[in-house]
Amino acid sequence: MKHSNARPVIGITMGDPVGIGPEILVKALNDSTLYAVCKPLILGDSHIIKKALSLLNISKNINIIDDPEQGQYQSGTLDIMDISTIDTNKSDLSYPTVETGTAMQKYITCAIDLALADRISGLVTCPITKTAMKLAGSQFHGHTELLAHRTNAEEYAMMLTGNKLKVILVTIHIPLSLVSASLTTQGILKKIRLAHTSLKDRFNIPMPNIAVAGLNPHAGEESMFGREEEDIISPAVRLAKEEGLKVTGPLPPDTVFYQAVSGRYDAVICMYHDQGLIPFKLIHFKDGVNTTLGLSIIRTSVDHGTAYDIAWKGIADPSSLIQAVKTAAFQAQNRKRELIENEN
Ligand SMILES: NC(=O)C1=CN([C@@H]2O[C@H](COP(=O)(O)OP(=O)(O)OC[C@H]3O[C@@H](n4cnc5c(N)ncnc54)[C@H](O)[C@@H]3O)[C@@H](O)[C@H]2O)C=CC1
Ligand SMILES: NCC(=O)COP(=O)(O)O
What we know:
Blueprint: E1 9-13, H1 21-28, H2 33-37, E2 39-44, H3 46-56, E3 61-65, E4 77-82, H4 98-116, E5 122-125, H5 130-135, H6 143-150, E6 157-161, E7 166-169, H7 179-182, H8 185-203, E8 209-213, H9 228-242, E9 246-251, H10 253-261, E10 267-270, H11 273-284, E11 289-293, E12 299-302, H12 319-343
Parallel strand pairs: 1-2, 1-5, 2-4, 3-4, 5-12, 7-10, 8-9, 8-10
Antiparallel strand pairs: 6-7, 6-11, 11-12
Helix pairs in contact: 1-3, 4-6, 8-9
Family: Belongs to the PdxA family.
Cofactor: a divalent metal cation
InterPro entries: PdxA, PdxA_fam
């Protein structure tokens, strides 16, 4: 690690300039407690950040830098790597364009490259839209797929975390109609292993107690309502148990989340996006954090999207971003400790 001070440098990508990213970023960095746990570095566009400051009537010093080493990292100053220069007089920021889509993608690739080069200790992403990614010509749906590709991750997973509930998704951004055909015993087993290792290493849970949700009503009920549990999910759970992991399932999806929230399980493996995200957001909409598992670098994110309906109105809630930055800082400190322990 090139930066010696105890606080880790956390790169925060500004997200879609047309969405609520710039606003929540400015609001989050107005919270001085973030500076106590990390050195926040904005990867974005100082023109847009200035516009957000003006919208919110917040005053900050702007320190534009080319290298993370040049940051001041003090509350009251925003350290920014200017990756795009969007002309805010010409762009009214009311809809995504090729320019804004390309810019938001560059913030992410730049942050990934800095993390891979060990110039920052982790990255936190503000929201982007999948449609703007497409507009900019990206082959990836969102951050997760782009991160996995650029870091050469063989196995990765999306995990949403809050203090009451943690969910890990087996399938992510695919149509519901393709979920069943996408499930495989080996695929589910890999997510269980990834969940186990990440909960242990990144969240300090020595022996995570993992629940696996079924796919069908009543987890198939003796195959009356579908065979995926019997044919695909149960064998994965059995193999994980044989490896010594603490895992239970497939459990009826309508009760497993209640049980997890009540403290019976540390995390729930979910078969598809909304199976996990509906219960998760009911509880953690405000303070939930999205973490990508299986990467060689640390990445967390807000749990919400670009919220175009409220963008540039000054009313977006920065709580999820604040929590995402704290989580990345916590994980970076854990990782640093591990590296030191391994060296000794
Ligand atoms: N981390 C990321 O980059 C994520 C990106 N997305 C993307 O965002 C785009 C929009 O997705 P939607 O499904 O509309 O979800 P959304 O989260 O953007 O909005 C859903 C509703 O929640 C409200 N909302 C969201 N965040 C808020 C905040 N911080 N404060 C106050 N209200 C908030 C919005 O105003 C809207 O009414 C999609 O392209 C989606 O793929 C969605 C989730 C995460
Ligand atoms: N619902 C979460 C989500 O869509 C986040 O996607 P990503 O951009 O973090 O891959």
